[in-house]
Specification:
The chain contains 12 helices and 10 strands. It has helices at residues 2-10, 14-25, 92-117, 124-129, 168-173, 197-205, 210-219, 228-237, 241-245, 258-291, 296-307, 311-315, and strands at 37-39, 46-51, 58-63, 67-73, 76-85, 140-146, 180-183, 226-227, 251-252, 255-256. It is an alpha+beta fold. The two termini are 44 Å apart. The protein is 45% helix and 15% strand.
Length: 318
């Protein structure tokens, strides 16, 4: 999907990636520096095997996140993926868990390979399973950026498990797993973000309130000199096709003036409304005159004079 590609391009900037992590995980504290982010190969993944009809042939569907980074802290690190989501996925706790388990599986496979390559001194269990007593996996985390109107889906794995009729002890014994989901349109405060992530999130959350959106873009100078990939994310996530269509009109030096683009889109809307009103007026006049059995020639002359139409233009209303 185009929106996925737009988000991937936008999040390829490590300053933004670190900003989202700091804003979501550390409440805006600048704990993680962009320089500490390392590219992490997302190809370590879980897969689903799907049968096609009754055929024994199976089809593998890859379950991967949009973007993944390794965040380094001294000798330690954790793996963090960011996933943009527009529609409610009612199996999101399972999907998020699969992302993280896939990351653990990739790390375990790498450890297994290294352990068996240097097998001297291993116990039978260590060699058999390819995991030393002291082997450790890096923690994995998935952040979900939800751009839809309202998240009414589940927040934990237990929310989608059917415990009906089972003893409460079973529920307590089954491990739960929550999701880390950010409802962008319901954010109360975006000041925890320091890059243009804040402006993109603000544009999305105010997109349904035209007055607040107008005030936002007028008062914040960033919108007059907006990075193109940020502009595209903001426009795509608010389904503002008009902004995408006219972006070239307001591009300068690789950046776009969002304020002027909005002004042009509003002007186009007004012109379209005027045209529609004129069209409705002409058709209404023609209908009334026809009901009065006025000759076609007289109707043509009437609408040509009243609406400043050429003879060719006037004929299309009859």
């Amino acid at each position: 999907m185009r929106k996925d590609l737009v988000w991937k391009e936008y999040l390829s900037d490590d300053e933004r990636y670190a900003d989202i992590i700091n804003g979501v995980c550390f409440r805006g504290r600048q704990t993680l520096k962009a320089a500490r982010l390392k590219v992490y190969d997302p190809q370590g993944r879980m897969t689903e095997r799907r049968k096609r009809g009754v055929s024994p042939v199976t089809k593998r569907r890859e379950i991967t996140r949009d973007t993944v980074r390794k965040a380094v802290f001294g000798n330690g690190c954790f793996i963090v993926g960011i996933e943009a989501q527009e529609e409610t996925d009612y199996a999101m706790p399972l999907r998020s868990l699969c992302y993280d388990v896939g990351t653990y599986g990739k790390q375990a496979a790498e450890i297994r390979k290294a352990v068996r390559k240097h097998s001297q001194g291993l116990s039978s269990g260590e060699y058999l399973y390819g995991f030393r007593l002291e082997s450790r996996l890096y923690p994995a985390l998935t952040i979900i950026l939800y751009t839809g109107k309202y998240w009414d889906g589940p927040w934990t794995l237990h929310d989608i498990l059917d415990f009906q009729g089972l003893p409460e002890e079973i529920r307590r014994l089954v491990p739960d797993a929550g999701i880390h989901l950010v409802e962008i349109r319901r954010l109360k405060d975006t000041s925890v973000f320091r890059t243009d992530v804040r402006q993109v999130f603000d544009f999305i959350r105010f997109s349904d309130d035209k007055e607040k959106l107008r005030k936002l873009t007028v008062e914040d100078p960033y919108y007059r000199n907006m990075e193109e990939d940020a502009y595209e994310v903001a426009a795509e996530c608010t389904d503002a096709e008009g902004l995408l269509r006219i972006r070239d009109h307001h591009r300068k030096g690789g950046k776009i003036d969002m304020c002027k683009a909005i002004e042009e889109m509003i002007a186009e809307g007004k012109e379209a409304g005027i045209r529609e009103g004129k069209e409705a007026g002409i058709r209404g006049t023609v209908s009334v005159l026809r009901d009065m059995d006025i000759p076609v020639e007289s109707i043509l002359l009437k609408i040509q004079k009243e609406y400043c139409l050429s003879p060719e233009e006037s004929w299309k209303y009859l």
